[in-house]
Structure formats: structure tokens, C-alpha cells
Amino acid sequence: MRIDGCSDIEDPAPLAQQAAWQDVEPIAQDDGPSPICPIAYTDEYREMMGYLRAVMAAGEESARALALSGRVIQANPGHYTAWVYRKRLVEALASDIGAELDWVSALSAKHPKNYQLWHHREALVERLWPARAALALPEDQRLANPVLRRELQFVGSALDEDAKNFH
Asked: Which helix or strand (DSSP H or E) is residue 162 part of?
């Protein structure tokens, strides 16, 4: 699945067919010998998850792992583990937080009530402007900060769309 404004999917071909992934052996999901109610994943999602499990198991911190986490999140925005891994990658790779906030904003247009998305956004904002530093300033200086202004505008737009969206 591709969401407008989310740029993680550079090559929509199966990962097994992409040269960048030839060095990775996917790890299949182990549901045990006799799963009671196996989940019917699509082949694309099963493949993405196999590669995600492999790069996570290897402790890989790379641009391709970041892109893969985004691909998985776009397919399943509630995948908590993918969000946690993505946060770690953004920090480890010193990714552009503004670009990451833009990515999250684009994703939120389709999934405005996703808890993982809001938690990730909060962590990004905290990296840009730690709450302790913000609270040390007088209110007029806090309100003049571009990070806070961006977030107030974003939250305002989210509430204009749905006043009950108080994640």
C-alpha cells in the first residue's frame, strides 16, 4: 500500500527481486506446529515482515531498514514493533526530523487516530525541542518557537477534521 506523501517505497517490486536485499535472508513467522487460527497475510506483507524480522534480528541500522519500516507501517499502521524500530533508526541515522514529521503528517491524513503514529510524532517533537527546555521559557517565547507553532497548527488541523481526535 502506498500513501500519498509517504516516500518510503522507492521500488514497488518484491524485495526478493531487488538487488539491495540480496544479502538478507528473510525470517519467516513461526506460529508453531499447529496454529489454531493462522492469520491470512498477503504475500507482499508476509515478505516485508520476513525482511523486517531479519534486519531487526541483525540489529541493522540503515537507510534501507528505515525505508522498509515505513513500507511495513504503511501496510499496517498499527504495527507497534515497526514503529519502535523506526524510532530507533531515525535516532541512529540522525535522520532529518522535519522530513520524518512530514512523513508522519502524510500518514496521519489517512490514519488520524493511530496511537503509534501520535506517539512517534511526540518523540520526534521531543527530539527537536525537549519539553524541559520549552518549559524553562516564558510563554510568549514558547509560542514563538517554530517547532511549537508547527505542532499547534498540526494538532489544530487534526481537531478541525475530528474534534474527538484527542490522541
From this structure: none
Query: Cα–Cα distance between 120 and 73 in angstroms, integer?
Result: 12
Whether the predicted pLDDT of 79 surpasses 90: yes
Q: Are 74 and 2 in contact (CB under 8 A)?
A: yes
Where are the extended beta strands (E) located within the chain? none
Residue 161 confidence (pLDDT): 67
Closest CA to 5 of 74, 61, 68, 65: 74
| pTM as predicted | 0.81
Instruction: Kindly report, residue by residue over 99-148, the tens digit of the pLDDT.
Output: 999 999 999 888 888 899 989 988 998 887 777 777 787 888 777 777 77
DSSP string, 86-102: HHHHHHHTT--HHHHHH
Q: Contacts for 145-153 with beta carbons within 8 Å, 24 or more apart?
A: 150/101, 151/125
Please say whether the beta carbons of 7 and 104 come within 8 A.
Answer: no
Query: Is 164 an active-site residue?
Result: no
C-alpha neighbours within 13 Å on the C-beta side of residue 44: 12
pLDDT of residue 135: 74
Show the cell assigned to 156.
489544530
87, 110, 113, 164: which one is catalytic? 113
